[in-house]
Amino acid sequence: MLGRSTAGLINVVDPEVVVILGEGVANWPFWQVGFDRAVRAQLMPGRRDISIEVESWDETSWAQGAAALVLATPFDAAGAAGEQGRLVRARLIGATP
């Protein structure tokens, strides 16, 4: 299901590369074959050669993502960070979220 869903997103969004990361990548060797088979079968013919990269994950990755959100939020005039950005900005100015 993950491979088919990912293929659907690739077909619609048309990214240059797909990066898979998160806590589940520790088990990637167990589901890589099924994922690859499913995603490639559902991709449009011109997209079947898209690069799918798997990044390692450890506990510091969560902290880096949170730090990036906090550091980027004050400069996010367009509000791309969404609700999380609003909450971060509220905390930075000392307001109640």
What this model shows, in words?
The protein has 97 residues and is mainly α. Helices cover 55% and strands 8% of the residues. It has helices at residues 2-13, 28-42, 59-72, 82-93, and strands at 17-20, 51-54. It has a two-stranded parallel sheet with strand order 1-2. α1 packs across α2.
**Molecular shape:** elongated
Give the terminus-to-terminus CA distance: 37 Å
- Radius of gyration, in Å, reads 18 Å
Class per helix and strand makeup: mainly alpha
Following the backbone from N to C, one meets helices and strands in this order, namely HEHEHH
Count all strands and give the number: 2
**Approximate strand percentage:** 5-15%
Helix percent reads 40-55%
Strands across the major sheet, in which order?
A: 1-2
| Sheet of most strands | 2 strands, parallel
Mean pLDDT: 85
**Total number of helical segments?**
4
Question: Runs with pLDDT <50, length 5+?
Answer: none
Helix-strand blueprint:
Layout: H1 2-13, E1 17-20, H2 28-42, E2 51-54, H3 59-72, H4 82-93
Parallel strand pairs: 1-2
Helix pairs in contact: 1-2
List keywords for this structure.
two-stranded parallel sheet, mainly alpha
Outline of this structure?
The protein is mostly helical. The protein has helices at residues 2-13, 28-42, 59-72, 82-93, and strands at 17-20, 51-54. It is built from four helices and two strands.
